[in-house]
Design goal:
Layout: E1 2-6, H1 10-21, E2 27-31, H2 35-43, E3 49-50, H3 53-59, E4 62-65, H4 69-82, E5 88-91, H5 97-102, E6 112-117, E7 138-142, H6 149-161, E8 165-169, H7 171-199, H8 203-209, H9 212-218, H10 225-234, H11 236-258, H12 262-273, H13 275-279
Parallel strand pairs: 1-2, 1-4, 2-3, 4-5, 5-6, 7-8
Antiparallel strand pairs: 6-7
Length: 282
């Protein structure tokens, strides 16, 4: 199978590495608007060749669009304009409804399988690509009933190669739930980083004192604005309500602290501890 990967960063590059290593693809064609990214991906053996968009799509049995979600809005119709009738197209975007709406009326819509692998790191670029990034992670396929059965099966087979667990959702539900569990987490991390940098002007002190708790919470703050600003733009309708709830909870904690009501703080923490059951599936 020939797989063309558009966008050779962390996600696209990691997919390409595993698809080639595990025999799913006999050839990986890469496309990237950055010449340096393309050169790095080729030098690192992530792709077998670099091509322009039209040629890469026309050769492919499967096209993976792995670019920021605002770029996906532009690229997806172009890809669907170029595909052959044996080609499946998928994306990896963290938002789905806006992207689905953008190609709803496209004559080749059924060849597109909207997907979102729930994995990643705070790093970017081809040099950040790693093997087994999606192992034992969830991959969400959205609105599969609007895609051709064989196209869905091809994308499912790809995720089975990654050893990912597949969930099915409609695009609107995906955006709502991912807004809670993923997008809000990034907002919190960015806000924490900005607050600490604003308060603590000595970055060397931050480096010396940053223990596991701060480092793990602030890790996501290293994620790029190029990727995340479009996500917040497309999913603001779902992020804002949960952000209001989060701000309210912060205010509650602040009030308890101001009032020296440590019994209430204890109750607050114990309530938060219940998340253990969710995360550990108890």
């Amino acid at each position: 199978m020939v797989v063309s990967v558009i966008g050779l960063g962390l996600i696209g590059g990691s997919m390409a590495l595993d698809l080639k290593e595990k025999g799913f693809a006999k050839k990986i064609i890469g496309v990237d608007r950055s010449a340096s990214n393309a050169e790095d991906a080729l030098a690192l053996g992530i792709v077998d060749e670099i091509s322009d968009l039209k040629n890469a799509v026309e050769q492919a049995d499967l096209v993976i669009i792995a670019v920021p979600v605002n770029a996906t809005l532009q690229l997806l119709p172009q890809v669907l304009d170029c595909i052959q009738k044996e080609t499946a197209v998928t994306d990896v975007g963290s938002t789905k409804q806006v992207i689905l709406n953008s190609v709803q009326a496209h004559p080749m819509r059924k060849y597109f399988v909207a997907a979102h692998p729930m994995s990643g790191t705070e790093n970017s670029g081809p040099k950040a690509a790693i093997h087994n990034l999606f192992n034992n992670k969830v991959a969400i396929i959205c609105d599969q009933e609007n895609s051709l059965d064989w196209a869905v099966e091809r994308v499912k087979k790809m995720y089975s190669v990654f050893n990912s667990r597949i969930l099915y959702m409609d695009g609107a539900a995906h955006d709502e739930h991912v807004g809670y569990v993923s997008h809000l987490s990034h907002v919190i991390s960015y806000a924490l980083a900005v607050a600490v940098l604003d308060k603590e002007k000595s970055t060397s002190t931050i480096f010396d004192l940053a223990a596991g708790g701060f480092a793990s919470t602030a890790r996501l703050a290293k994620s790029s604005a190029e990727m995340w600003t479009p996500i917040f733009e497309q999913n603001a309708g779902n992020v804002l309500p949960i952000l209001d709830i989060y701000i309210n909870k912060l205010q509650q904690f602040k009030t308890h602290l101001q009032n020296k009501d440590f019994e209430k703080i204890t109750e607050f923490i114990q309530e938060a501890n219940k998340i253990r059951r969710v995360l550990n599936k108890e």
